[in-house]
Amino acid sequence: MLKECLENLEKISPRIHSITNYVTANDVANLLLACKAKPIMADAEQEVEEVTAVCSGLNLNLGTPNDQKVSAMLLAGKRANQLGLPVVFDPVGVGGSVYRKQAAAKLMQEISFTAIRGNISEIKTLAFGNSNSYGVDAAVADAVTKENLEQVIPFLKVLCSRWNTVLVASGEIDLVCDGKQCFVIYNGNSAMQYVTGTGCQLSALLTALMAANPYTPLQAAATAVCLMGYAGEVAWKHMKAGDGNITYRGRIIDAIFNMTGEMLEEGARFELR
Amino acid sequence: MLKECLENLEKISPRIHSITNYVTANDVANLLLACKAKPIMADAEQEVEEVTAVCSGLNLNLGTPNDQKVSAMLLAGKRANQLGLPVVFDPVGVGGSVYRKQAAAKLMQEISFTAIRGNISEIKTLAFGNSNSYGVDAAVADAVTKENLEQVIPFLKVLCSRWNTVLVASGEIDLVCDGKQCFVIYNGNSAMQYVTGTGCQLSALLTALMAANPYTPLQAAATAVCLMGYAGEVAWKHMKAGDGNITYRGRIIDAIFNMTGEMLEEGARFELR
Amino acid sequence: MLKECLENLEKISPRIHSITNYVTANDVANLLLACKAKPIMADAEQEVEEVTAVCSGLNLNLGTPNDQKVSAMLLAGKRANQLGLPVVFDPVGVGGSVYRKQAAAKLMQEISFTAIRGNISEIKTLAFGNSNSYGVDAAVADAVTKENLEQVIPFLKVLCSRWNTVLVASGEIDLVCDGKQCFVIYNGNSAMQYVTGTGCQLSALLTALMAANPYTPLQAAATAVCLMGYAGEVAWKHMKAGDGNITYRGRIIDAIFNMTGEMLEEGARFELR
Lengths: 273, 273, 273
What we know:
The structure is a homotrimer. Chain A is an alpha/beta fold. In chain A, 51% of the residues lie in helices and 14% in strands. Chain A has eleven helices and nine strands. Chain A has helices spanning 2-12, 25-34, 48-53, 67-83, 98-110, 120-128, 149-163, 198-212, 217-237, 245-258, 261-267; strands spanning 15-19, 38-41, 57-61, 87-90, 115-119, 166-170, 174-177, 182-185, 270-272. Chain A has a nine-stranded mixed beta sheet with strand order 2-1-3-4-5-6-7-8-9, sandwiched between helices. In chain A, helix 5 (98-110) links the parallel strand 4 (87-90) and strand 5. The two termini of chain A are 16 Å apart. Chain A binds chain B through residues 15, 22, 25-26, 29-30, 33-34, 38-44, 46-47, 50-51, 54-55, 68, 238, 249-251, 253-258, and chain B through 21-24, 26-27, 63-67, 93, 96-100, 134-137, 193-197, 242-247, 249-250.
């Protein structure tokens, strides 16, 4: 499954439109190139519909929001919905302000998302309007652990059904759900928390994999999460004395650049619930 | 020629004003520092004329455009024209939307460009209003090859005369033309397509070299293209097992940082037609 | 002192709100993660007060300014003042335009800054409305040297008293002053001038250290400056043949990631005047 999804991505090389924040836009573009997709960034209301229409997927990221960007997201998202293209939403730091909450609510009301990816605090904020987190990181109190998996998975499945979307909850354990099934994914390395934008990058990767595998969205999403996490593991093995978070950032994207379907199948660690 | 142009750049260390996209702005700034120029970025209408006036060259890049940025480009470009400073235009993804086409047309109408750099699809779009490409990459159908060089070169020379500019068409074969002569440049490495912003970086390098060599714009432009391409070759030789596109990105800029005039003369591969 | 300040930062891991330019925002975020702080970026007027209120420090950076960003800085800065949070101001390229000078003047009038960090030309521009520099670099005529230290230090102390702030003047010799004392710091490597955003990064580091050490602002500031400079020295020792400014950029942040209080105490070179 993972092998096929990844190979479809390399074969199809979909063009992905990202409306994203300026903090991690460069990483997102290079990540998309690493996985053999083609990035394009555009966020002016005057052009986003047209740009989306020549792409195979749309990646909407709530970091550093402003009114123009949110309007552009609404226009591009609706156009992608009309065209049947996958649309991924990353509600970066949605718990941090009323402004982000309202923007997220409006986007969720007017756009049908193929997938929503966030940490568990961000997803709780989308569901309830608040969580235990005020920043871009998940709150410890919200963390998904082996102990609370049995509670969290049904909660996420209900949200998937309500929102008619695939949900990706990133954390030490990653969960990838639709209304029926949940991949519990154990790949990753805790040092990834010291690299800015790994979440933004994962959302872009998710969009690319969903664009290349339109009939198996859940599997495509699980592939993206395993790939990002396993790349974090491979990258960690390349670290030497004196290396730090910037070298690690580069090594993760390099690992995605060099990943084959076989390597991914072998390295992925997950179970289905 | 190349040696002299590059050494003038190191000697003069021109300050370059870039109005550019947020995806690759950091790479552009580091590239300019690598070639010993001084970067400054400013894109508010209120300050761009003043900033341009204390610089030796202006680099206008159409990535992630919006109305404010385009207005700022118009102001800065006109000021640079008044002061006789080189102005380079990079019509990033101009085929992707009517909005970019109109912005590019307005810029070309109101500003006299010293050089325009794009892939061949972008240049065709500037000339005809359309091409075979909808993204930031050139379309295969537009590609410059050994087989169609005899057709493409006269076409570009006509455009140079019409627009009174140097044209740089980037691709597997790079062409650097004015109305009379054309450098056909064979430097480069195909892996550069997996690094975001190599085009944006080349346009900045072009601006710096033209600022340092105001009386030989065609030679300055050819030097920039040979330098970027040869840096891509040198960088590729430094790649090790496990390295990917992010490491390659860094290695290219590092190679420019370490390039001497002698090395460049030796590594450049071009012919004049 | 340095050891304690740095260990407090690692222990407390403060969330830092940066309103900053798009050129170096990614580096700033990764730098904050390297020193174990938590970055958040937000610059819409609608949300900045709320975001500041859940952070422990605010970092205001004048690069690529526009009206919205300056308004957001005013709102966030006033809120931080109300809450007693440290606010750091980095007047990037303030000598480059009337627009930046007016924005800086307004920010200094309405916000009480815990620290202001710039090169000596930028600080002179804040004080007198002009300097010998028009770009983002200090002018040679303004440079702090061993020969003029006796003149520069009292000048800075007067400004500290007038503005009721800690002043950090970056250069070959770094000065960290309040109205009474001045740390003269000799750490650093001249190759840091070829890396974009080391100043922006230092201002973010300064904010993090001040947030973690609220009762010893001068010492916290000196720690930030020694740490950045010493990281530049450590990073330089890791450079190999073929490495250039991009590799150096990464190595500096990596060195901060790996720095311990003991290493810093041993490597710091300063005197108190």
